């Protein structure tokens, strides 16, 4: 979990094996309203240098999450496969 959102999936353009160049899509669960949602650019996700700005389309909850946290999520997922 990352604060107000539980990360369920990350799709990103990678700069190398461990570094995200650009966030493309996130699957998250908002911990305020418990709704699962898919965020993409212009639809609840803003990719900024070093972070992603997430907004729940259901309740409006929002949070900035560091890009390092998304990179860590992808590394853990890679170890599971």
Question: Care to describe what's here?
Answer:
The chain is α+β, with helices and mostly antiparallel strands. Helices cover 17% and strands 52% of the residues. The chain is built from one helix and six strands; from the N terminus they run ββββββα. Strands 1-2-3-4-5-6 form a six-stranded mixed β-sheet, with helices on one face. Strand 2 and strand 3 form a beta hairpin. The mean pLDDT is 94.
How do the helices and strands line up, and which of them pair or pack?
Blueprint: E1 5-14, E2 20-30, E3 36-41, E4 44-48, E5 51-55, E6 62-66, H1 67-80
Parallel strand pairs: 3-4
Antiparallel strand pairs: 1-2, 2-3, 4-5, 5-6
**Gross morphology:** globular
- Average of the residue pLDDT scores: 94
Helix content: 10-25%
What percentage of the residues does DSSP assign to strands (E)? Answer: over 45%
Question: SS-based structural class?
Answer: alpha+beta
Largest sheet, strands/sense/barrel:
6 strands, mixed
* Radius of gyration (Å): 12 Å
Low-confidence stretches: none
| String of helices and strands | EEEEEEH
Separation, N- and C-terminal Cα atoms: 20 Å
Count of helical stretches: 1
Order of strands side by side in the largest beta sheet? 1-2-3-4-5-6
Outline of this structure?
The chain is an alpha+beta fold and 81 residues long. Helix content is 17%, strand content 52%. The mean pLDDT is 94.
Throw out a few tags for this protein:
single chain, 81 residues, alpha+beta, 6-stranded mixed beta sheet, 6 strands, 17% helix
């Amino acid at each position: 979990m990352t604060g107000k959102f539980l990360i369920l999936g990350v799709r990103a353009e990678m700069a190398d094996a461990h570094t995200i160049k650009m966030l493309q899509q996130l699957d998250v669960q908002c911990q305020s309203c418990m709704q699962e949602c898919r965020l993409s650019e212009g639809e609840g996700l803003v990719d900024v240098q070093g972070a992603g700005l997430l907004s729940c389309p259901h309740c409006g909850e929002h949070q900035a999450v560091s890009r390092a946290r998304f990179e860590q999520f992808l590394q853990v997922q890679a170890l599971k496969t």
